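User: For a reading group we're discussing how well predicted structures match intuition. Take Amidase. Before you show the prediction, I'll give you the sequence so everyone sees exactly what went in.
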Amino acid sequence: MLPDLFQTRQAIRSGALGARTEMERCLSIATSEACHHAFIGPLFESAPTNAERVPADAALAGLAVSIKDLFDIAGQPTPAGSVVLSHSPPAPADAPAVARLVAAGGVPIGRTNMSEFAFSGVGVNPHHGTPANAADGSTKRVPGGSSSGAAVSVATGAAFIGLGSDTGGSIRIPAALNGIVGFKSTARWVPTQGALPLSTTLDTVCAMTRSVRDAILAHEILAARRVSAGPNHLRDCRFAVARELFQDGMDPAVARAFESALSKLSVAGARIEEISLPALADLPAINSTGGFSAAESYAWHRLLLERSAAGYDPRVAQRILRGAPMRAFEYIDLIHARAQWIDRMTAALEGFDAVLSPTVPVTAPPIADVAPGAERDDAFFALNALLLRNPSVINMLDGCAISLPCHSAGDLPVGLMIWHAGLRDDHILGIALLAESQLRE
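Assistant: Thanks. Here is the predicted 3D structure of Amidase, as structure tokens, for the group to look at:
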């Protein structure tokens, strides 16, 4: 298991490790085959000196962080995994999320690859190549998206925090598939300014890490707030497991890992109850006209598409164009329907500390199955829908969720998602700390 940020920071503070030495180790990984295609805007040259300049008592102590390509970095364009924006004007300032990481002593080592314009949960990019999942050295498997390079940077050991975004699962999906921790906070906690939008309604700025305690630290930095203490013991927790939707179509490896995780938490004293969430069945009708991502991405991209459609990933353009036919009253109806749905879901979850679900119902398939090419479009869109299905529920809920590895050693990674409605972030993080120790046994 890779050392987490807390362990490494302690080694730097004690003098047992130098920040420059650790940065050079991270960069050796970032430039290796393990991170091929993970970085599309490297900042490798300046990173060792920048790390050396950070005081050892800074929160991030000069340790490596990676920045998803949709965030502004002062003096650079923000292409968001595209080629049509590769020559756009340089950003005048860092995005607030980037600035907060740097102010806390994090050293960006590069812009990470992503699904073009963040519009896919698979992580395939036809322009810059697709970084291979870090969990399998023999078969190149999908990394998950859209924060694909961010996940690979953390899972390989190149970075301690992978800054990304989550609109329908873009942090939790790659975290689950790569066997790391991905926390999606309640969206309002972290500013989205300086991040190229997919859906202004659903976008959440958040991060992937190697441990839950690192996730708490990353959230505290990004949200500029302190996380309050959570429950003291799992026996104090009452968990729900939804009968509908979340467990549909699980492959055998995911089913085994999920049942094992529930068993471990139950043995530790957690009360786990299966419940019905009939409101989940309403989501297809609520989103039948395309949903927020299609409508809001089309509003942002329509003029660029008119000028440069040939430069887009055709799979991304197809999804954006779903927003073109949506009428104003349908968009307003969607806003009202979501608000009413959130009320029904929140009421149904009252009395539970969290809900437990598989983050995604499958393990990572080979990249070759869904690589760019019209002959593989059907397979790509089927996988994309399956990967987004579970985590996107929490974005619609305006909720918070964390994905923790729950697979056995030697198996492909599987994520356990612990989630609830909005503004329960601290409680979810506290539960995740307790659960993590049980799942690792």
